[in-house]
Amino acid sequence: MKLVAIATLVLAPMFLFLQSAAAQSCAGKPLRDVGGVKNSWALDNGGVAAFAKMNIDLDGYGRAYSPKNYDGGALLHLCNAGKVYLPDGSSYQGSENNTTCTGRFMQDFKRIGDAGWKDPSVGAISWYGILGSRSSLCCRRTARGFTSRHPHW
Prior knowledge:
The chain has 2 helices and 8 strands, in the order H-E-E-E-E-E-H-E-E-E. It is an alpha+beta fold.
């Protein structure tokens, strides 16, 4: 729901601009694959109009992640924020796929957290986009950038 609210705040001014721009002449000629953008036009007034994807990186935003994910007010699923190191020497990205994200990662997250985050016999998570200053050695690999308690947890 918050993502919808943020998207509305970001996109609303753009739509208002487009609505007022629509009242002006937008005559022009279609362009083909300009800068990798398939839908673009050279406008008669010298401007260029185009449609393109937009990506927003929320890592580092204080409410980007929560241990309760979306139910906790997060905008991104926690699995996007870490790499798990297991005692057998294997590791995996939490966002490897949807099944890993909502299943395996969340199970390991709970297990590693319940063990205090620094027990190499359980595993460790190296976090991205979550401020942390601690590290843990697990299977000859150092997991960095975690904190035993995230400020919003």
